[in-house]
Each structure stands twice: as structure tokens, then as C-alpha cells.
Amino acid sequence: MKEVVVATTNKGKVAEIALALANLPVKVLDLSDFSDIPEAVEDGDSFMANAQLKAKHYAHHTGKACLADDSGLEVDALGGAPGIYSARFAGEDANDAANNQKLLAELIGVVPEKRTARFRCVLALADIDGTIMTADGVREGIIGQDLRGLGGFGYDPLFYMPEMEKTMAECSKSEKNDISHRGQALKIMTKILGEYLK
Ligand SMILES: O=P(O)(O)OP(=O)(O)OP(=O)(O)OC[C@H]1O[C@@H](n2cnc3c(O)ncnc32)[C@H](O)[C@@H]1O
Ligand SMILES: [Mg+2]
Q1: In the chain, how many domains are there?
Q2: Which residues form ligand 1's pocket by a CB distance below 6 Å?
Q3: Range of 174's domain?
Q4: Residue 36 designated active-site
């Protein structure tokens, strides 16, 4: 059976991606199956550039086909920030809690109608022969006033979806995959992978 490495250091992403790939005839590995792999330097200027450079970096270091993800949150009231800097919004080694606190602090006094935002995700599949395939997705929402829900990761507890009357962190993993930016990109990528595996 062919193998593909889910090449991300983010355990939340690994879980969502592995769930979406579960029905494909492929052995799914992740970076915990390898040792001494240096972390990719994300110095691209777009989600697309970063996703591609991560996929190539990890394919080079694992010697296997790698699926990488670059994603983030764009908040309109902040001119699209944190965007590609979402992981380090509150500083170089920031964790999810610190990033969420920073986001709430930046939006103090901003009314709900002006708290519009979106998650973006670009997935890149790099084969060892240098071939790269990509897929993307976007999900609109509103930044809440407080944290709600325990599921997901990152900014999920602050990402409120009015038509669902809940935050992304109040969704189960499969529900999140049905409606999220990553889920959308994964629907396209599973088709691409299906072809690639033939
Ligand atoms: O680069 P890798 O190793 O994949 O892991 P990462 O966590 O550093 O991932 P990114 O560089 O793509 O940074 C994206 C950040 O955007 C946020 N993010 C991305 N997708 C998200 C989601 O589905 N829900 C909540 N926050 C998300 C979260 O804070 C991530 O750390
Ligand atoms: Mg990263």
C-alpha cells in the first residue's frame, strides 16, 4: 500500500486530516513516525507558498509523499491579521491560549457586526519526484467575545458561526470537517489523492 505522511507539527491538524483520509487505500503516517526531522522554516509570503514549502521540506526529509497544511485566521477589523502569522500572533512561542487572549484584547470595543473573520487553509501534497498538488478552503465566521467549546484547536473557541449557533470548538471532529476551511480543502485533496494512488 502507498504511504503518505501528514506533515504537520500540529496534533489538531493531524487528527482532522487523518479522519478525512481514513477511507482511502493509503497508509497514513505522521511526523511522530520519524525522528530528527528539522521543523520547516515558514518564510513564505502566502498560505500557498508556506504549504508548498512545508510539503517539499518534509518530503525531502522523510523520503515519502507528504501532505502539509498552512492555515490561519483573517480578521477584517485587524486588516486581515493575523493571517499567515496566526501561529505566532502573541509571540514566537505563543500557545493557543495566548493567541486567543491577544485576539480578544485587540478587538476590545469592536461590535459584533465588525468582528467578521475567516479561516483559510491550503493543503499541499508533495511527491518525492518533486510533483506538487494543492487544494484550498475558506470558512467565514465572527470572532466571539469569550471562549466557547473544548473541541478543535487554535482559534476555534472564538470562531462563532451564526448559522450554526455555535463556535468551531463546539463541533465534533467530523462536523468540523463537514464545514471547515480544512474540511473543504480535504474534500478536494482526497479526490487528488484518490487519483494519485491509482
Ligand atoms: O505549521 P504546522 O506544523 O502545520 O503547524 P502550525 O500549528 O504551526 O500551523 P500553521 O503554521 O499553519 O499556523 C496556523 C495557525 O492558525 C490557526 N489555525 C489554523 N487552522 C485552524 C483551525 O482549524 N482552527 C483554529 N485555529 C486554526 C492555529 O492557531 C494555527 O497554529
Ligand atoms: Mg507552522
Answers
A1: 1
A2: 8-10, 13, 42, 69-73, 86-87, 96, 99, 119, 152-156, 168, 180, 182
A3: 3-196
A4: no
